[in-house]
Design brief:
It contains nine helices and no strands. The protein has 246 residues and is an all-alpha fold. The chain has one domain: Growth Hormone, Chain: A (Up-down Bundle). Helix 3 (52-63) runs antiparallel to helix 4 (71-95). The longest helix has 26 residues, at 99-124. It is globular and about 50 Å long. The relative contact order is 0.19.
């Protein structure tokens, strides 16, 4: 199967595919991460709410006196992300046997957090003070932590929805030029492209339109994923969403 065919099957897998509709749903969540991190970094004081590797590095820069960086904001994002991840881990232990139900619960909770963030952004506009920025950071980092933990429990290879370092490393290490088969490029390449497009869209919308617009688009993306997973998992048995192996 060619790379294009594999990519198409990832976005729109057949009914009997190993992970069913999960890959395309996680690609949507990855797009939302790009949107949210663009808003947090560009509009909320140079902090990441989804990319904790970058956020920890920024925290180090802030502690060292880097200009334009905030120790408090970075710590808020980190603590809120960990709290969200703890909640996502709890969901995984409770209903992880049915990956469809787990994703449905995860995106419902994440969507609620993003909806509150949209309301806050609408009420305050782009001229946000310190308190509003911190509230948005906490809401968005909670949502991203939850999303990451749920994606981890779901366990589709190469689709963590927030982390790309290991994804890019895997692509390079498994490439034919490195002596690999290159057969797993599909999911991971789509994750990279999805994150890139989300960050691009988030930047353009935040800087040229309004802060609330990319947040609203992130909410709409999560809501769309929620509708799909609800319809597909409502009547499906857990076995239909299980990892059936290679």
């Amino acid at each position: 199967m060619g790379a294009l065919d594999r990519a198409i099957r990832t976005v729109w897998p057949p009914e009997d595919a190993r992970h069913g509709p999960l890959p395309r749903l996680l690609v949507l969540l990855t797009f939302a991460t790009g949107l949210v991190d663009a808003v947090s970094y560009l509009m909320l004081g140079h902090v990441f709410v989804g990319n904790m590797t970058g956020n920890v590095v920024l925290l180090g820069f802030a502690l060292g006196g880097g200009a334009g960086l905030s120790v408090v904001s970075s710590l808020l994002a980190l603590v809120a992300f960990l709290a969200g991840a703890a909640g996502g881990g709890r969901l995984g232990r409770r209903i992880g046997a049915h990956r469809g139900h787990l994703l449905r619960a995860g995106v419902a909770t994440e969507g609620a957090l993003l909806a509150v963030a949209v309301v806050v952004a609408l009420a305050t506009g782009d001229d946000t003070g310190r308190v509003v920025r911190d509230v948005l950071i906490v809401l968005l980092a909670l949502a991203m932590g939850l999303q990451t933990a749920v994606a981890r429990s779901i366990g589709v290879p190469g689709l963590t929805t927030t982390v790309l370092t290991s994804t890019l490393t895997g692509i390079a290490a498994d490439a034919r030029l490195a002596g690999g088969s290159g057969l797993t490029l599909d999911h991971r390449a789509l994750a990279v492209v999805s994150m890139l497009l989300g960050a691009l869209a988030g930047t353009v919308l935040a800087l040229r339109v309004a802060l609330v617009v990319p947040l609203a688009l992130a909410f709409a993306t999560i809501a769309a994923a929620g509708v799909v997973v609800h319809r597909r998992s409502a009547a499906a048995a857990a076995a239909d969403w299980a990892d059936a192996g290679p």
